[in-house]
TrEMBL record:
Main location: endoplasmic reticulum
Cellular localisation: Endoplasmic reticulum membrane
Family stated for the protein in its record: Belongs to the membrane-bound acyltransferase family. Porcupine subfamily.
Membrane topology annotation: Multi-pass membrane protein
Protein known as: Protein-serine O-palmitoleoyltransferase porcupine
GO MF annotation list: O-acyltransferase activity; palmitoleoyltransferase activity
Lineage: Eukaryota, Metazoa, Chordata, Craniata, Vertebrata
Protein's UniProt keywords contain rRNA-binding: no
Main enzyme class: transferase
Length: 307
């Protein structure tokens, strides 16, 4: 296998990935960006309002034509139809219902091939903009709580609303354990994955209560999650606050590296086919002297001492 120097690696990355990506992206959106910039510039000028609105409408029609050509008529037709419904129902309290039914009928007609399939697929915007994770919160975390809530947003939302909140009557710690146990079951309950998730339960709980106690004592914004703008803490953005948040962030990275050590890409084929069993999990963490678990235990002792 050929080896690359650092300079050759970055050169290949620049020429084979970054530049083509930027070029293809600009090829797709440069005209739209130009129109947006021109409209923004016109609105900054002291022109009459009707000229500003007319220029915006013209820019919108030109953008539609650029992307859809003559098929833009279907988008314009839907807009006019919606305007007509709102105008006719302007004195009715059910105009929202009428508008929804109108749009639904129009969409169903489009799905039944009133428009050719390729064009309709482009206009309806099939790729939904659904945020699944927040990678920056995982790679540069504020806390382990932020990591587990940003890793898989739909799963986190479901577990929080339908498991954690219903289990709170058992107590906070018990609710956390039940939530991570449910997550382990949903992931197939392999031993190494269950070990990671249950370890996360202890780590996130101890981190949460410790930072909450320290935030109360120091009156500082060092909670596991970012404080609201109107929080009652006296110290918000000072050097000490930033240092403590960086310290806990570094501790979260340490926990992530420790827990991620179980997912070894260099493991032999037999182990990979049989799965990561209990022996492999215990052996792997024993090699690391159970460091993360001991650190978590130490944080819990410190929390009890300052309580």
């Amino acid at each position: 296998m050929a080896t690359f120097s650092r300079q050759e690696f970055f050169q290949q990355l620049l020429q084979g990935c970054l530049l083509p990506t930027v070029q293809q992206g600009l090829d797709q959106i440069w005209l739209l960006l130009t129109i947006c910039f021109a409209c923004r510039l016109l609105w900054r000028l002291g022109l009459p309002s009707y000229l500003k609105h007319a220029s915006t409408v013209a820019g919108g029609f030109f953008s539609l034509y650029h992307f859809f050509q003559l098929h833009m008529v279907w988008v314009v037709l839907l807009s006019l139809l919606c305007y007509l419904v709102l105008f006719l129902c302007r004195h009715s309290s059910h105009r929202g219902v009428f508008l929804s039914v109108t749009i639904l009928i129009y969409l169903l007609m489009g799905e039944m091939h009133m428009v050719d399939t390729v064009t309709w697929h482009k206009m309806r915007g099939a790729p939904w903009d659904l945020t699944v994770s927040r990678p920056l919160n995982v790679e540069l975390p504020r806390s382990m709580v932020e990591v587990v809530t940003s890793w898989n947003l739909p799963m986190s939302y479901w577990l929080n609303n339908y498991v954690f909140k219903n289990a709170l009557r058992l107590g906070t710690f018990s609710a956390v354990l039940v939530t991570y146990a449910a997550s382990a079951l949903l992931h197939g309950f392999s031993f190494h994955l269950a070990a990671v998730l249950l370890s996360l339960a202890f780590i996130t709980y101890v981190e949460h209560v410790l930072r909450k106690r320290l935030a109360q004592i120091l009156s500082a914004c060092i909670l596991s999650k970012r404080c609201l703008p109107d929080c009652s803490h006296r110290h918000r953005l000072g050097l000490g606050v930033r240092a403590l948040n960086l310290l806990f962030g570094a501790l979260a990275v340490f926990h992530l590296a420790y827990l991620g050590s179980l997912f070894d890409v260099d493991v032999d084929d037999t182990t990979e086919e049989q799965g990561y069993g209990m022996a492999y999990t215990v052996h792997k963490w024993s090699e690391l002297s159970w460091a993360s678990h001991w650190v978590t235990f130490g944080c819990w002792i410190f929390y009890r001492l300052i309580g």
